[in-house]
Request: fold
Amino acid sequence: MEALDAKPGWTSDTFASFSTGAGQPTFAICTPFDDNPATVGNGTMIALLAGTKDKVDAMHAKALALGGTDEVAPGLRADVFYLAYFRDLDGNKIALYAPNS
Reply:
């Protein structure tokens, strides 16, 4: 989250959230409320607006350095977005993007 300039928000023993500021989207991680094991969703993906190509590159590199796996290396997609995908240690697919401007 540091690569996106996101700061911690609400936190507890079972919950952590991050955001780039008031009125902006929040990314939250928590243990399942039903007390069942966490599992990877099939067909789900989290997309995070990184804002700039440099931030996409930095966060993708950090994810891989921390043990994530590359799904799609950073690059321009359809002349619309600069985009990268990785999977976290649990197998969740995460996209990072910046507008192509």
